[in-house]
Amino acid sequence: MTDVSITSDGNYGGTGTGGLTMVGGASRTEAVKSPEKVPTETEQFVVPVPQRKMTGQLRERKKATSHHIGPYEGGRKEGFSMVKYYSPRDTLLMGNFHENSPSGVGTLITPPNRFLGIFRAGLPEGVGILRSPDYEYRGGFYRGVKKGMCVLRGANEERRGTFDIGHFNGYGEITRTNPDSKASNPVIEYSYKGFLLEDLPHGAGIETVGPASELYEGYFSLGQRHGIGQMMRGQMNYLGEWREGSRSGFGFETDPDYAYFGSLNRGVKQGIGEFVYESGGVYVGEVARNVREGFGKFIVHGDIYVGDWANDRKHGRGYSKSSKGKIQVGVWSAGIYQGNPDKWQVEDNGTSFYVKALEKIEEVDKKLAFMKDNIKEDSVTIIKAFLPSIFGLCSITASSARSFSARSKYLKPSS
Asked: In 10 A of CB 317, how many CB atoms?
């Protein structure tokens, strides 16, 4: 008798192996047509009991655990056969048998699951298709377990790659569609091409998100953007460091109105940075909550201001010099000069507020220049050279590079 089943997770279950288990040996419990009587439809799955003399009690006829239609050779199933099993649950197996075990192309049906593929020594091994109510698996099998290159389709998701030990590992692709879109014209909400670890993006990859087609090229860690990466979303472009799924660290960001290089924390510009505005202005200094905040230098059309900022405006002690040579030193409030109530002097024994401020700004400039060179070296090398060689997606990466380079004219060290 042969005992087969499909477990609830779609793998093939059997006793003690974690896969499909076939126990060889000819069965003597299978229904055989009696020359004296042809069994009815309800009787054909009952093993005929030889007529014996009964002494004192009536023996029950045992129900067959399987029913076989096909050839035998030497008491074993051999060739194309159909076998129906009733225990532990109804299972139908059709295909080629060799020495009493499925071998070659066959179909195994254990409702609601269905398998069509190649068997070897009683186990699915090679290429096969496994269908269940929740998904369809097309790909490799090894000793009854899903393993190898495959395509796994669910209701609104498709995965391609290498399946092993119950997960996708290595290079793979993920596509998710909008559940409300038509099957004939699905709307893709998410796609990923790159390396996977236990089903999650991990390592180098390319990700597209949402109907606005946000594109990310870079590194991932356990499903989150992490490391050096480039993101394009609409007219905004970011190239730099990521941590746990958000822009954190140092990076370049371009927008139609400005370009920014500096530090970020969870997607918010925070720390020190450099703004280069479309209008021609350049700001270098401290930043908080995405605006100029703290101490910084601003130059626009020859006018210079060095001093304190609050909520993106000149606010506090500062020094300014216009392109025509006019100098102001004192206090600003909400961007408006309030005078010099404390009678601060521009020059003070060879030192001045402006000179000290410039020294502080020079330190910021050096730090920004150092970070900028390192970010350029790391990100440009990795993203624009490393990724295309892996995925062969040079057209995508090249277009990203052209889009970024068109705006990177603003990202140059401050003078």
From this structure: 18
Q: Where are the beta strands (DSSP E) in 7-100?
A: 12-13, 66-69, 72-73, 76-77, 79-85, 91-98
Per-residue DSSP letter, 369: H
Antiparallel, parallel or unpaired: β 91-98 and 72-73? unpaired
Closest by CA to 82, choosing from 62, 112, 104, 102, is: 102
Q: What would you measure as the largest C-alpha separation in the chain, in angstroms?
A: 131
Closest CA to 206 of 73, 391, 385, 360: 391
Instruction: Quote the distance between the C-alpha of residue 90 and its chain's center.
Output: 38
Secondary structure (3-state) at 121? coil
**pLDDT tens digits, 212-242:** 679 999 999 999 999 989 999 888 899 889 9
| C-alpha 203: how far from chain center | 10
Token match 């021609």: residue?
280
- Percentage of the chain beyond pLDDT 70 is 67
Q: Does the pLDDT value for residue 243 go beyond 90?
A: yes
Cis-peptide into 112, omega within 30 deg: yes
pLDDT in tens, 41-87: 333 222 233 333 444 443 444 456 778 888 888 888 888 989 888 86
pLDDT at 216: 94
In the chain, count H helices and then E strands: 4, 28
State pLDDT tens for residues 351-369. 466 566 666 667 766 766 6
Long-range interactions of 151-158: CB distance < 8 A, separation 24+: 155/179
Please report, to the nearest 10 degrees, the dihedral formed by the alpha carbons of residues 120, 122, 126, 131 taken in order. Answer: 160
Backbone angles phi, psi at 384, to 5 degrees: -90, -10
Q: Which residue has the tokens 């822009």?
A: 247
User: What is the distance between the alpha carbons of residues 89 and 100, in angstroms, rounded to a whole number?
Assistant: 20
- Rounded Cα distance, 218 and 195, in Å: 11
- 316: tokens are 């506090």
Report pTM: 0.68
